[in-house]
Structures are given as structure tokens and as C-alpha cells.
Amino acid sequence: MRAKITYLVTAAVLVFYFVLVGTRGVMLIQSGTVLTVTFGVAVLILPVIGLWFLWKNTQFVRRANQLAAELDAEGGLPVDELRRTPGGRIDRDSADEVFARRKAETETSPDDWRCWFRLAVAYHDARDTPRARKAMQRAIALHDGRPVQA
What we know:
- The chain is built from 5 helices and no strands.
- By secondary structure, the chain is mainly α.
- The chain has 2 domains: 1-64; 84-144, Serine Threonine Protein Phosphatase 5, Tetratricopeptide repeat (Alpha Horseshoe).
- It starts with a helix and ends in a 6-residue tail after the last helix.
- Keywords: Membrane, Transmembrane, Transmembrane helix.
- The chain crosses the membrane at residues 7-27, 33-55.
- This is Tetratricopeptide repeat protein.
- InterPro entries: TPR-like_helical_dom_sf (IPR011990).
């Protein structure tokens, strides 16, 4: 729940910032000189890119949560079997062991979205966020029946 609240607060702050920047861009365009209109258009591009990025990330998180809920209903969510340091951090060797098992499972069933979901969790636990995201995107695509890039 804490992560959801943090995400919503961050998204709200970003939307506020995009509105603020957008109004400045409109004000620059309304000034009417060639230079201010050029700057105004350039300033308006930033909130558009930001809103697109925020929308895509929100869709990704929503879909990943839907897959997690479906997997939980099937009883297939990965069990937290990781050892932790006294400070509460995941032990690196433990994460590597679990990752090796998840990777082998995924190589055995490369078309199963459930394996890719569990692999994404293992990547995340091993602190490899870019690969975790790609594995989750693949799980989402497989679940939706969309073509998957190799």
C-alpha cells in the first residue's frame, strides 16, 4: 500500500509540474515574437513527453498488478525464500540461487507468462531492474497473446 501511495503522490506532483510548465509554454506562445513562440512550443513538448511516459508506466504497473492478482488466485506467486542480512536486505547469494532456478524454469517453458513473471521477480530481487522490467513486459505480452520479441 505504501508503494501505491508513493506512486500516486509522485504522479500527482508530476501532473502539477506538467500543468505549470504547460501554462508557461502557452504564455510564451502568446507573447507573439518568433523567439518566444519557438521556446513556447519547445516547452510544451516536455509535458507531452512526460505525460506519455507517466501514462505508459501507469499502464505497466496496472498490468503487472493484474498478473500478480491472477497468479495469486492460482496459487502460483513465488514464495519469499530469500535469506536476509541483519539489516533486512536480500542476501546476494540467496537471490542468485533463486534466480538460477527461475531462469531454468523459464528456459523449460519459454511461452508461459507465469514463468516470466516469476523470473521478473527474481531479477528484481537480484537488483537487476532493467531485466526485471523486460521480463515483466514479456510476461504481460504472453498473457495478452501479443507477439513477443526474441
